[in-house]
Amino acid sequence: MSEINRGPEVIRKMAPFKVDGLAIPYPEFVPRLYNFCKELGFRKGLMMPSRAFCSDENQGLPIILLTKHFGTFPFNHGRVGGIIAVDRHGPHAHHGEDLVIVQASHVGYDPDTGNYGQYRRPMMRDKCVSASCGKLVHVITPYLEQYYFARERIFLHRDAEGRYLVTVKNSFIDFTGSPVKNGLVVRLQKMAKVDEEGRVVPLAALSAAQIYEISDSFRRQLEARNFQWPPVGQEVTIGENLTEDLFFYRKDFHETDDSTLLERNLVKFMPNVVTSRTPPLRAAKVNIQLEFVRAVESIRRCEAYQGRNLLYVAGLNIDISEYDHFPATNYFVPWAAYVQLKGGTPPEYLHNIEQNQLFAKLMAQSIENPDQIDLKEEIDRVMMAPRFDIRSPA
Question: Is position 180 within any domain?
Answer without folding.
Answer: yes
